[in-house]
Specification:
This protein has about 300 residues and is of the alpha/beta class. It has helices spanning about 45-50, 115-125, 135-140, 145-150, 170-190, 205-210, 225-230, 230-240, 255-270, 280-285, 290, and strands at about 15, 25, 30-35, 35-40, 55, 60-65, 70, 75-85, 90-95, 105-110, 130-135, 155-160, 195, 215, 220, 245-250, 275, 295, 305. The strands form 4 sheets. Strands 10, 11, 12, 13, 15, 16 and 17 form a 7-stranded parallel sheet that branches. The protein starts with 13 loop residues before the first strand and ends with a strand. The model is unreliable at about 1-20 (pLDDT under 50). It binds zinc ion. Zinc ion binds near residues 110, 111, 160, 164 and 200.
Length: about 300
């Protein structure tokens, strides 16, 4: 019987393969964003899926669409009974949530690119984790393949300025050049411009933030990985800091950070945490990128001038 196994086909911790597909599946629970759909063919094979009948316990919360997907209509939970012509039957619980309720975290990796970027990306690809790399313009030319792969695999590339100078401590014109030159150097190698920036040490003026022309992404969780260079401690800082909406700062260039990331991210992904790019996190409340320009973005909830 096909459907007796349907729930078993739902892998714990399986996530949508593209961020644009807004649903998560865990055990026999499906979570859909309000207004988005969940394609049933991601649960069962195409052939089986064509014969399915979906019955929902509350059509105001979730209703089947013509092409066999489930639409999240309003916030709440309902039970969807799936049956097929052969008499197979299974149930899943569908939770429709607002985007702000989905547990999302942005992991941000500074000061690269460096020699660990490729291994990090192998790992991120295996866990469907997307991150933001804040790179130093003068270093991108040393790792062009890493930088291109970041773009190809859906990570966000950020400008961490040309030479990592403290922008509030250099002359006004020099500071603006640092931002511009960094963005250009990254674009030259990546083939696309960076979409966010982060001032070194988190220090910038509002004039610089506006001139950068893209969101200024800071952080609200500092792992201090550079100071301790201890994988277990890095892992603990990430685990303790991974509350919904947080932006976590690590540095790409330490082996201990790479190891700490693997330990922590494995556990968090298993718990259902989604690692998304900075822009995905910061715009999930409906803010546009333009709305964010000039603001200092510390987390999805904390954005200020
Ligand atoms: Zn830095």
């Amino acid at each position: 019987m096909v459907l007796a196994t349907a729930a078993l086909l739902i892998c714990p911790g399986l996530f949508s393969s593209e961020e644009a597909r807004a649903y998560t599946v865990k055990n026999d629970q499906v979570t859909i964003y309000e207004g988005e759909t969940f394609p049933m063919d991601s649960l069962v094979s195409d052939a089986d899926f064509l014969n399915l009948r979906l019955l929902t316990s509350d059509r105001s919360i979730s209703t089947p669409t013509k092409d066999g997907a489930l639409l999240g209509l309003s916030i709440g939970s309902c039970v969807v009974t799936i049956s097929d012509k052969a008499g197979g039957r299974d149930e899943i619980t569908v939770n429709v949530v607002s985007k702000e309720d989905v547990h999302m975290v942005a992991l941000t990796l500074d000061d690269g690119p460096g020699s660990h970027a490729m291994e990090l990306m192998d790992y991120f690809a295996s866990r469907n984790v997307k991150v933001t790399f804040f790179m130093i313009g003068s270093d991108v030319g040393n790792y062009p393949k890493s930088v291109q792969r970041m773009v190809d695999e859906g990570h966000e590339i950020g400008n961490h300025t040309m030479n990592h100078k403290q922008l509030t401590a250099v002359k006004k014109d020099r500071a603006l050049k640092e931002i511009e030159e960094g963005a250009r150097a990254i674009e030259d190698v990546a083939g696309v411009p960076p979409t966010v920036w982060r001032p070194p040490y988190g220090d910038s003026t509002q004039e610089q933030r506006i001139a950068a022309g893209m969101p200024t992404v800071l952080w609200n969780i500092d792992t201090l990985d550079w100071k301790y260079k201890d994988a277990d401690r890095v892992a603990n800082e990430i685990l303790n800091g991974a509350s919904n909406g947080n932006i976590i700062l690590v540095h790409e260039i330490y082996k201990t950070t790479l190891e700490g990331i693997k330990k922590a991210v494995d556990k968090l992904v298993a718990k259902g945490v989604r690692f998304v790019t900075s822009t995905t996190l910061l715009t999930r409340d409906g803010s546009t990128v333009e709305d964010l320009i000039g603001l200092r973005c510390f987390s999805s909830k904390q954005k200020r001038q």
